[in-house]
Design goal:
The complex is a heterodimer of chains A (about 300) and B (about 230). With about 300 residues, chain A is mainly β. Chain A has 1 helix and 13 strands, in the order αβββββββββββββ. The longest helix of chain A is centred in the first third of the chain and has 26 residues. Chain B folds into 2 domains: about 40 residues; about 180 residues, no CATH class. Helices cover about 80% and strands about 0% of the residues of chain B. Classes of the chains: A mainly beta (about 300), B mainly alpha (about 230). The interface between A and B is large, with 41 and 54 residues.
């Protein structure tokens, strides 16, 4: 005959079993749902429209313009910046939005003896694609409140200074390919992630990148010909950790700061200096970025 | 407490599992006798260790499952703005919660037993081993099954929150009592000294740590505000 203690032990095991079953089935049988958040003007699955603008030499840009100054601001959505092999194109703009959302506001004008073309772009919500030509020198400020920014600089990029910032939450991805030319790029994210990919056998000029993330992560991957491109990283993390996992980099690394340079940095043809400051979060430097979570099947 | 003198399982005529169930039930009904029995039978450490892992693992799994449901709902609600979140990101959060809960409990187990050991052995001059106390403390977590039950009830119907709170309070007091009984039998000291070692001691240490933490925070805030001057 089972005693009272044995029965109670059995009840204990039964409670554990109920707990296991509940943990396993509750996400399926008792899903929690909140009302879907809708921002006025941002349709969920509504009809899309695309606003397109282009500034082309000889059409709406005078022939003496040499510099383009971009001022781009978007509230929600994405900004995608590319360079093209088109010497006449000053700026191509494509803005995909919900049919109910506000149109893109774009304005331009020439100044400084008509050598500088000023382009102002403002949008509420949507996806903004900007295409730059290779016949002009570009300066620009790109601001986004919530969303993602993707900038790819390749052999046709000819940048003096860019400032790219995400005011609240989002992700910023900068990719630098072979033959890119830029002097300074400032990147800033308040809450979110910043990813910098340098995949270049050569650069056309020395460049500086200043990156800052308040809360989130900064991941930098570098795959360069170290004889041609010297890369340095000076980084600090206020609260969090820093990891350097790259055989081409030498220097000082601690848990919260690092000052590292590629081998042959001093003799490299062109140099790329990255200064990163991180508030709360993690910073990594590696040769290539590993996507996903190994070993976890969703 | 019931008289369980005639219920002690005898070796050879009771399966191990039955003995285990009897020990668990005995912790609820007759902790004095059961703890003495555990000490006398020299139960190996892995049994209470697995018991604690089971309790905290299942409790953690329920919390992780709840967190997954809430996160999925939030992500679905705001997906029109931010898009769909990566599934891998959602899947990793419950694992982080589960791991943190298990690790935190194991650390808590060692620290609380360590403080009680120092107090009972060196302040109150009792006789007993730390490992033995760890074993008894492991069994003292058995009432955590009530927390599992209360969480499940709360999860099934949120209207069960008064019962859930009641069960959590009962569990807390029960565990404190069991820990005092464990220290009493392990070191052969009276229940008052055992209570001081098992509860007051860790509370004092916790108070000191919390005080140091807040003093540290205060110093940091003061330094941002221009120092003490």
């Amino acid at each position: 005959m089972p005693t009272a203690r044995t029965v109670l032990g059995g009840v204990f095991i039964a409670i554990l079993f109920i707990g296991v079953v509940y943990a396993a089935v509750s996400p399926v049988l008792q899903p929690i749902s909140f009302p879907r958040l809708e921002i006025p003007g941002l349709g969920i699955e509504g009809e899309k429209v695309v606003d397109k603008y282009s500034l082309v030499k000889g059409t709406n840009v005078s022939g003496i313009v040499k510099f383009v100054d971009l001022n781009v601001s978007l509230k929600f959505g994405g900004i995608n910046l590319l360079s093209s092999n088109n010497p006449d194109l000053a700026c191509g703009i494509s803005f995909e939005r919900s049919v109910n959302a506000s149109e893109l506001e774009a304005d331009y004008g020439e100044s400084n003896g008509e050598q500088v073309l000023h382009v102002d772009v403002y949008g509420e919500s949507g996806g903004l694609n900007l295409t730059l030509g290779n016949g002009y020198q570009y300066n620009g400020t790109f601001g986004l409140r919530i969303g993602g920014v993707m900038v790819e600089l390749g052999q046709y990029a000819n940048i003096s200074k860019f400032a790219v910032f995400i005011k609240y939450i989002g992700g910023l991805n900068l990719k630098i390919n072979s033959g890119a030319s830029f002097e300074e790029i400032d990147l800033s994210v308040d809450i979110g992630g910043l990813q910098l990919t340098v995949d270049a056998d050569s650069l056309k000029s020395n460049g500086v990148i200043n990156a800052g993330v308040n809360i989130g992560g900064f991941s930098m991957s570098v795959d360069v010909n170290t004889n041609e491109v010297g890369v340095s990283l000076d980084a600090t993390v206020d609260l969090g950790a820093l990891t350097v996992n790259h055989a081409d980099f030498k220097g000082q690394v601690s848990e919260t700061s690092c000052s590292v340079k590629t081998i042959n940095y001093a003799t490299a043809t062109h140099k790329l200096d990255v200064k990163a400051t991180m508030g709360l979060g993690g910073l990594t430097l590696q040769k290539s970025i590993q996507y996903g979570f190994p070993g976890i099947q969703a | 407490m019931e008289n369980i003198g005639d219920e002690t399982p005898k070796k050879g005529n009771s399966s191990y599992f039955s003995s285990f169930l009897t020990r668990i039930g005995g912790v609820f009904l007759a902790p004095d006798v059961t703890f003495n029995q555990i000490i006398a039978e020299k139960i190996r450490f892995w049994e209470p260790f697995i018991l604690v892992l089971l309790l905290v693992g299942i409790q953690g799994a329920i919390f992780a499952s709840f967190a997954y449901r809430v996160l999925s709902a939030i992500i679905t609600a705001i997906s029109p703005i931010i898009g769909e979140a990566p599934l891998g990101f959602l899947a990793i959060i419950p694992w982080i919660i589960l791991t943190l809960m298990v690790v935190a409990t194991l650390i808590f187990w060692v620290i609380v037993a360590g403080i009680a050991h120092i107090s009972a052995k060196y302040i109150f001059k009792g006789n007993g081993s730390f490992i033995q106390l760890m074993k008894l403390y492991g069994y003292s977590f058995v009432p955590c099954s009530l927390v599992i039950l209360s969480t499940v009830l709360f999860g099934i119907s949120w209207a069960a929150w008064p019962l859930s709170i009641f069960l959590n309070i009962v569990t807390t007091f029960w565990i404190v009592l069991l820990m005092a009984v464990a220290v009493k039998h392990n070191y052969g000291i009276d229940i008052g000294k055992a209570f001081i070692s098992s509860f007051i001691g860790p509370m004092v240490v916790l108070l000191i740590i919390v005080s140091i933490f807040w003093i540290w925070i205060w110093l940091i805030i003061s330094s941002f505000a221009g120092g003490f001057a």
